[in-house]
Amino acid sequence: IHNVIFESSDEASLQVAEEIANLIRDKQSKGETCVLGLATGSSPIRVYEELVRMHREEGLSFKNVITFNLDEYLPMEKDNRQSYHHFMHEHLFNHVDIDPENINIPDGMVPPEKTKEYCLSYEKKIKDAGGIDFQLLGIGRTGHIGFNEPGSHYNSGTRVITLDHITRVDAGPAFLGIDNVPRKAITMGIATVRSARRIVLLAWGQNKADIIKKTIEGEISSEVPATYLQEHDNCTFVLDEAAGSELT
Ligand code: F6R
């Protein structure tokens, strides 16, 4: 892992948006598609805002972009305001010229007897698209990436997981109470994330400082799934000063 610490998350987000825009344009100039792996949550909001601005003001086009979101709660209706489906449309997709057919977000309403087949088809779709060119990640206080909670296997693919208690506590306010937070989710696996050709993880604020230290300086272990990123050869952690404050 290579890590970069910025004075502010704002400045950092602009830099990441610039990298994504350059990749989209570069692929466009070659007549190629650009496959993005996307995250939800508070961390990437400013990146999406900047991409929307670039679309509006600089003509950045998403016509050649295919996206795969990391995860979705289970069960979760698409048009529920708490869904990641809703989040992505509100922050990005409704404001750019992406082809709706190129948007992939795990379906939070897939019936239990169909989840296995559904998860395999999500993996296949990623492979058929040519694999992920750029994967954007946040990190949970449990060390999760996507919703790969502690105990997740290095070789895991897209699957149903049980959310960690801490993750549900952190999501509590958005759901107006922890009791309303779903207990399960569908998430891309560690292997799915690792297969991306480029990975950028964002972390802002003091409450991420401890898990960032463990992830970058700790031993690789399923207890902190994000430590698996140490073995990726093109992974950058983009931090603000507070998130990087415990690094030695
Ligand atoms: C979201 C996701 C999660 C979040 C993580 C951090 O799609 O996969 O891993 O990135 O929980 O969330 P925030 O950014 O809200 O601190």
TrEMBL record:
Identify the catalytic residues. 71, 144, 149
Stretches assigned to the Glucosamine/galactosamine-6-phosphate isomerase domain: 8-234
Q: Classify the source by domain of life.
A: Bacteria
What this chain does, per the record? Catalyzes the reversible isomerization-deamination of glucosamine 6-phosphate (GlcN6P) to form fructose 6-phosphate (Fru6P) and ammonium ion.
Q: Please report which protein family the annotation says this sequence is part of.
A: Belongs to the glucosamine/galactosamine-6-phosphate isomerase family. NagB subfamily.
Q: What is this protein called?
A: Glucosamine-6-phosphate deaminase
Species assigned in the record: Flagellimonas lutaonensis
